[in-house]
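S.,

As promised, the iron/sulfur cluster run. Input:
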Amino acid sequence: MSLNKDGVLTEREGFIKYGSCGGDMKCGGESLAGAVSQRACVYCGARVVLNPISDAYHIVHGPIGCASYTWDIRGSLSSGSDLYRNSFSTDLSEKEVIFGGIKKLTAAVDEICANYSPKLIFIYSTCIVGVIGDDVESVCRYAESKYNTRVINVKSPGFSGAKMQGYKAACDALMKLMEGSAPSGAAGKAGGGVSVNILGDFNLAGEIWIISNYLKEIGVEVISKFTGDSKYEEIIKAPKAALNIVQCAGSMTYLAKTMEDVFGVPYIKVSFFGVDDVCASLLRIAQFFNNDEILKKAKALILRMSPKTKAELDKYIPLLRGRKAAIYVGGGFKAISLINQFKELGMKTVLAGTQTGKKEDYEIISSLVDSDAVVLDDANPSELEKFMIQKGADILVGGVKERPLAYKLGVAFCDHNHERKYALAGFEGAVNFAKEISESLNSPVWKFLRQ
Amino acid sequence: MLELTPNEYKERKALRINPAKTCQPVGAMYAALGIYECMPHSHGSQGCCSYHRTFLTRHFKDPVMATTSSFTEGSSVFGGGSNLKTAVKNIFEIYKPRVIAVHTTCLSETIGDDIPTIIGQLENVPEGKYVIHTNTPSYVGSHITGYSNMVKSMVKYFSKNTGVSNGKICVIPGFVNPGDMREIKRILKQMGVPFIMFPDTSGVLDSPMTGKFEMYPKGGATVEEMQDAGNSSCVLGLGETAVSAAARLLGKQCKIKEHILGLPIGIEATDDFILKLTEITGKPVPEEIEEERGQLVDIMIDAHPYYDKKTAAIYGDPDTVLGLAEFCFSLGMIPKFLITGTPDPSFEIKGKELFDKFGAKDGFVKHSADLFELHQRLKSDKVDLLIGGTHGKQIARAENIPFLRMGFPILDRYVHPYMPMVGYRGAMRILELLLNVLMDKREADAADEDFELVM
Ligand code: SF4
Ligand code: SF4
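Predicted complex:
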């Protein structure tokens, strides 16, 4: 391993690209041994996707850490149960690691079933469970037959990949749930009427409520949500919807595809980040149903909201014009939306990176940014630092691990991840986003930094 | 809020709900950050390392650097030896630390990687640089155990008695914030006591804003200091659960006298700390310290009507909980529940001793416990104040109990890593925060006619 002229590990060269020049981008590889990787594990991916299911018991089968780090960390809001905000685990001890953890897991499930009447239990198998070879499936079968409840194994040993594989594990678990519990009857376009499932929105800061309200306004029924503010009863009805709309494509395209194959529910990709994306997505949904009434209502909603939102946003342009943005987010689709939003605000994206972006995403990203912008897959902190300085970024959009780094460099920050405090989706969200960006960029605190 | 919690306590044997601890590597990583120019290295899957860094960042609000062996499915079958070797080579080449501090994870422990042997086979450790390690299986102990283990390894790998005394005392702080480590150093300087302190995360995780990102900030104990620790006249460990093992090891390995105290939290424990220092060094207590103590007593007297006889539940790490409990007793409060998630039978013994010392008959103390249990118990036996890390905030809200954030982790407030809870100044700060939450609550609940301007 060595460094190239930009101070980048040569092994990492293929994962970095400058704008529209240069060939294909490598992505989705393993992190290197010895790297300060920002990458999370399979279990983490599965957990963040499933955890917002608010009335499920999420039991982490493994040692305590895996459970404690994921305890109530997603700002997914619930309109009903707050069960999901508790942390359940088997807190494995040395004895179980040597002799197997099945007895303890069974006892843990028994304790839940004896004291409460769970409808749905997820059991997450972490790395260590994979290694000690516990037969978690057998516990699921035992508990399902004994207690008349759904108990689903989420196979998520961390070492078997990165977050992306965890999304897949979560989607497999959801499929298993729907296949085993769904009420029978016609599904998909044929029988679903004017109804959708929302995929890939986790109701951070109440965003799914914003989107659901739009859909309600234009006459589209929301059957189920994956997984923001969702409940067992809702999820099992999902196969009856006419359409799946997929927001966070990175985590949910796989589920959408599988649901199409198995239940015949078609899907379209949407994005509710940025005014243009919101409008386009609403129209696409309306067009799908080929129904004049819905289209009329969608246009009316857009006409009511879009001009006034744009007028609101225009107020921020003088405060933001010409400022440079760096983006480091989970999925490729979100990065694309953000680049567009920065454009709308008169800003320029000088660095765009993702943790789980795919080749197609990087192609679009490269076509949207200037040719001297840097595009990164699975960046480590030194790369982020290097390129933020080199490109003179004024603000970074990222997640919890990037925030302190940005601040240390004197760069403003916006959390577009679990810890966002204001809804960033929809028309309201677009304004919140501009406001947040502007507040951080133009805060007086930066003045006190001695250069 | 927390609708699940039943009103009465039910025994659970297998299920852990809402833990009051986390896993060993976090503690080991934190301790390693207290070494100057050290890269903590997590030998396991990338996910663990990512979680541990994030967790520390959420508490300290500072970047936390650590590397990972990035285990794959293959390493989980064939062992992670080659991953570790590649990692060490890469880390020295790219991140250029002086020390790499390896800790294990559940995964590498379960596979059975033999770290000392792998380290012994390393070929490219540059001159004057070091690779140290500690074993931190999380299915044993807690983050406190991990901290203890890493500090022990610092002693084991570095400290030597060369036969020439350096005339210093070696101080090993327990699992506390950089603000506390800073305060301990300030007290030692005030006393005029020459010292070596490790680990020392001040200047690392409370580093100032410079507009530059430093991979290795200025703070931390140097390799030379840890080596020289063996030449100290004695070692003083502060925090029985977190560092007595390291202090004893240093004593044994370098044949120096060891002293072990609790964390100097509150007036009595700080008195013990200062007395110990005078006893060891023969130095008198300087006037500034007398003055600080006097100020603390003054505040205690002024404000006592507002906290006297208030009951409290305290949870968190063993040394911190015991320290806070003793201070509460000194104030005339009644700590009723003392809970730690860390498996540590001595916590219960010491808790009971405290209850006896202050004549509290129905105090409840338990190790290996969790917050769900505490919540159940509080439902039938309500207290006036809840003290602990962020994870109790839902209980506080559900039961409408004033909540004082102290200890680790605090994920939802700022400034705490910079501020001490140890020493007389730390006690003043605890008291200020404690009074604020109690008095804010009293005012929030007061009828208009009872809402007073002067209190
Ligand atoms: S596997 Fe072990 S070391 Fe890793 S996060 Fe889980 S408990 Fe901690
Ligand atoms: S042990 Fe595995 S599942 Fe748990 S945090 Fe580490 S990588 Fe993820």
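The domain at 42-179 of chain A is CATH 3.40.50.1980 (Rossmann fold). Chain A touches chain B through 80 residues (CB under 8 Å).

- D.
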